[in-house]
Structures are given as structure tokens and as C-alpha cells.
Specification:
With 377 residues, the protein is mainly beta. It contains 3 helices and 18 strands. A hairpin with a 6-residue loop joins β14 and β15.
């Protein structure tokens, strides 16, 4: 046999086998052979009954007449070939499974309670030693990722064993059109401070936080007595003022100061992309039995990780002199994106701790008070 004839014969056999396989030949119970590229639909009606001697009975020819304008659809499952069916029921919404019942379903909250551990090193404006503080912030999400109320409580102890506590509330709102967080807060503080009296005060604050510029302002007001007399000494001699004669008293008092502060700043040039921010600002403190203090301060903030922050502050004025102190804050659990030495997204700052003076500003002041000498006659 020539090679060409051999290859032609082999090709014919393979083609026939492929045709038979594609035709899906099957034999019925009564000798009926079906040749179809599709399998009969499951549950379909059986073929017409066979006639005598295994001959298939053909269906009767249709009656003569005009052709119908539109053929009637064949009901599914009535013939050999599968009929297309509508799939709309599979995509219709089931009320019981997808309807949201008001007051029952709450979306996933962006963050939960936060516990922060803070270590303060060095003396600051109004205190002379370091301290340890624990802060807890519990959120209530009015509008998740947009509007939040925070309950904020803290408890701390100085390195010489004197306690201080605070409690208050924070309201913050994220404005997506400006990509800024606006917030207000109020606190009540208690501080044994210098150990000569228990001091209390109220604090009100405002904050506007953005990607490039932050602004914070706080006001502090002492509640109750803000001074404690430690000692008094009558100075020798008298002083003349106009037509009056005065005797002078030198008093030593432990004073607690009211006042306020503000800061304005943001990411540093070039270093801002690595989580380095700087906030210059000013403060003013006053006490009727002490001295006024007008000074400047600058705070350097380093975002080491998503939950570790280091703050270094330098402050100077003519009353409290120059003070430098460092605060290290660590928060658990972590709700922010994992990062190291990177800035935080503006929306994430809804959960940030409030930046303010957590300690009451106190100082031992020495003042001279004039006492008028009155001739009883």
C-alpha cells in the first residue's frame, strides 16, 4: 500500500470516529436510535412509541393550511431539545435576606476603644518632674468614619507619687470636601501638683486637623481657690506711696494658673513624608496672687509607627523660664494601617489623642504685698 493511500485511509477512519462521538449515538429500549449533538433533557418526554417489528412510527403530517404568523412557544421539558428559560428569579432580591431593617443592622465601626500608655520625661511648664499616665478613649460613632463622640479618661502619677486625673468628652467631624477633621473637647482636671493643695480646673479646646496644616487651641480656667499661702514675712521699714504709708509683707504662695495656648504647624519640609511634624505656638498664664507668663513653645512630633508617637517640647517665658520635656505614647490595639515613619491619613486622626496640657500649671511664687498703715486717731 502506498503511503499516500495509507494516510488517506487513516484520516477517513479518524474522521468517522470523531463524527460518531460528536453525534452522541444512543439506542433506546425498543431499538430506536437517536443521533443528536445534545443529550435529551432530563425528565423530557420519551420518543413516540415504536410501531410493529421495531419500525419507528413517524408523527402525522401537519394539516394543510396557512402558516401561523408566530409559532407558539414550546413549554420547557416537552421536547427532546432543552428550551431556554428565564433566569430572572435567580437575580431577584429576596426581601428577607437583603432588606436592611432600621435599628437592627449597624455597619462595621472604623475603630473601637483605645488604651494609651504615656511616659513623660523632664519638667514642663508648671511641673518639675516626670510622670506616667494611662489614657482610655471609648468611641460612639454617630456616623461611622465621619462623626464620632469620644469619652476620654486619664489617670497618672508623678515620679514622687502625686496623682492627677482627668475626664471629659471629645466631638470630632471629618469633612470629606475639605479633607479635614474639626473637633471640640471639654475636660475636668484634678492635680495634687506641688503637694500643697488639691487643684481643679476646666478645659475647653478646639482643633482643626488636615493633611498639611493643623491648628489647636485650649483654654484653662481654675475652679475654686487657686492659691495657697505657705509663709509670710514682714519686711523691715515702710514704703511711701502718695499720701499713704505701707508696711510690706513678703509672701510665698503655691499658685495654680489659668490661661490658654495654641499651636499651628504640620509636616516638616522633606521630613514630613517620614512622619516628622513641627508645631510652633504660644501660651499665656495668669494668677492674681502670682505673676503673668507670656511665652512661646515648639513641639516636634515623630510618628514612629502606627501606634507609637514621640513628642519633644521646648517652652520659654519670663516666669517659668525654659523647659524641655519628652512624651512617649503607645496605643493598643492598633486600628490604623501598618506603617513605620509615615504620616497618618486625615480620616484616621478621628481617633488621635487630644493635644493639651494634661497637668495643671503650678508654681511657687514669692510676691511682696503692701499693707496700708492706718492711724487709728
Amino acid at each position: 500500500m502506498k503511503p499516500t493511500r495509507f494516510f488517506a485511509t487513516a484520516s477517513l477512519v479518524l474522521s468517522s470516529l470523531a463524527l460518531i462521538t460528536a453525534a452522541n449515538i444512543s439506542t433506546g429500549d425498543e431499538g430506536v436510535v437517536r443521533m443528536s449533538s445534545l443529550r435529551p433533557q432530563e425528565g423530557a418526554n420519551s420518543a413516540p412509541a415504536a410501531g410493529a417489528a421495531g419500525q419507528a412510527q413517524l408523527p402525522p403530517a401537519p394539516a394543510p393550511g396557512p402558516a401561523p404568523v408566530e409559532a407558539s412557544p414550546v413549554p420547557p421539558g416537552s421536547g427532546v431539545y432543552p428550551q431556554p428559560q428565564g433566569f430572572a428569579p435567580y437575580f431577584e432580591r429576596t426581601v428577607g435576606a437583603t432588606e436592611v431593617v432600621p435599628g437592627v443592622y449597624q455597619p462595621e465601626q472604623p475603630f473601637g476603644p483605645i488604651l494609651m500608655f504615656e511616659t513623660n520625661l523632664g519638667g514642663g511648664v508648671g511641673y518639675t518632674d516626670g510622670s506616667q499616665r494611662i489614657n482610655a478613649r471609648v468611641p460612639y460613632h454617630v456616623v461611622p468614619n465621619t462623626m464620632v463622640l469620644l469619652g476620654d479618661v486619664s489617670g497618672g502619677v508623678t515620679w514622687d507619687g502625686k496623682p492627677y486625673v482627668s475626664g471629659g468628652g471629645v466631638y470630632r467631624y471629618y469633612d470629606p470636601t475639605r479633607n479635614r477633621v474639626f473637633g471640640v473637647n471639654m475636660f475636668f482636671d484634678y492635680d495634687e501638683g506641688l503637694g500643697f493643695g488639691n487643684q481643679t480646673r476646666t478645659t475647653a479646646g478646639f482643633e482643626s486637623l488636615g493633611k498639611y496644616v493643623d491648628f489647636r487651641a485650649n483654654a484653662y480656667a481654675m475652679v475654686g481657690d487657686d492659691t495657697t499661702l505657705l509663709s509670710t514675712t514682714v519686711l523691715p521699714g515702710v514704703a511711701l506711696a502718695g499720701n499713704n504709708v505701707f508696711r510690706q509683707h513678703e509672701e510665698v504662695r503655691a499658685n495654680a494658673y489659668s490661661g490658654g495656648d495654641f499651636e499651628l504647624g504640620g509636616p516638616l519640609p522633606l521630613l514630613g513624608r517620614y512622619g516628622m511634624n513641627m508645631y510652633p505656638g504660644m501660651y499665656y498664664l495668669t494668677n492674681d496672687a502670682g505673676h503673668d507668663a507670656l511665652g512661646f513653645q515648639v513641639r516636634w512630633e515623630a510618628l514612629v509607627t502606627q501606634n507609637l508617637t514621640v513628642n519633644t517640647t521646648l517652652a520659654h517665658d519670663g516666669t517659668f523660664d525654659t523647659n524641655t520635656f519628652v512624651g512617649v505614647q503607645y496605643e493598643i490595639p492598633n486600628y490604623r494601617q501598618q506603617r513605620t515613619f509615615r504620616p497618618r491619613a486625615t480620616r484616621e486622626r478621628l481617633m488621635d489623642p487630644v493635644v493639651r496640657a494634661n497637668r495643671i500649671h503650678q508654681r511657687i511664687d514669692t510676691v511682696v504685698r503692701n499693707e496700708a498703715i492706718i492711724n487709728p486717731l
